Amino acid sequence: MIIGLQIIALIFAFSMVYFVVLHFKRGEISKSEIVSWIIMWAAAIVIIVFPELLRKFASTFLVTRVFDLMVIAGFILVISLVTSSYIRTKKLEKKLEDMVRREALKKSK
Amino acid sequence: MNIFIVIPFRNEKKHIGLVVKGISKYKLPVVLVDDGSIDNPNLRFKNVTLLTHKINLGKGAAMKTGADYAIAAGADAIIFMDGDNQHMPGDLPKFIKHLESGGCDVVLGSRNYSYGVPLIRFLGNKFASVVLAILFGIYVSDVLCGFKALTKKAYQKIRWDSTGYGVETEMVARIGKTKLNFCEVTVQSIYHDKVKGVTILDAVGIMGEIIKWRFTI
Questions:
Q1: Tell me, what's the ipTM?
Q2: Transmembrane region positions (chain A) (predicted)?
Q3: Fewer CB atoms near the end CB (10 Å): N or C, chain B?
Q4: Which residues in B lie closer than 8 A to residue A105 (C-beta atoms)?
Q5: In terms of residue numbers, what domain contains B139?
Q6: Using an 8 Å Cβ cutoff, are B79 and B146 in contact?
Q7: What is the DSSP letter of B54?
Q8: To the nearest whole angstrom, how far is the Cα of B183 from the nearest Cα of chain A?
Q9: Domain of A11, in residue numbers
């Protein structure tokens, strides 16, 4: 991995840590959530600074470059986050629909 | 037969009064469903029930709220009309006649192309008709027409999940799946507002939904 890309990745990771802390201070995420996110981003920072740590791991999965492994892991993470977010949104939509319709029927004039 | 008229609408301050006035001579109970209007309609009509969604949920949800109210109030059948004054109250007797004769569980309006349906909507509509015919074995000439009627039994069988404009298509898919008797009547339609209604993006979403319904309904 080239140095320039590492710098960009570090800036991104630290920005995400900042946003996580900001959301925690605003009371939008819980203590357990901030701890999970910080651990995740701290791990990401370690891997960005010392990518060689993953070399053995990458060869186990027959992936030649550490960068490729990180891209694959990133895709898996993004797809799972999008899926869980979609399911949560659907559930929320249904609850909201039920509530608004129930209110409308209750207050018929 | 106790027939209710259900009219979902959103931001139709200009037209909704005309719609109510037009149908008043038929002396049928009317249920208006305001789906989160932001044009401050402040409506007051005599002998009309007004249900209000505090936020916009979509046409399908508004139709369901109106239909649930009508059934709870003792309706044997429901006629749906759009709130933008595009349907002619003069077509109501055609629906009433079919419902009262008992021959059809569902009466679907079909807009005649010569009455001013824009070409793009006409083509999209025909495409949806063909897709539904292939996937659900039901051919309806005007899938997207909002002027339609259902008996109580039919409503209970095809109660839809769509909250938005997909409702018309889902209803046809469910009619095909449940093998309900349906008939079509020709209705007039006048487009007052070309920017409202189903957009191309909605249509793409609905096409995806049709495939989903093939496996879930």
A1: 0.75
A2: 6-22, 34-54, 66-87
A3: N
A4: 51, 65, 68-69, 72
A5: 3-216
A6: no
A7: S
A8: 30
A9: 1-50
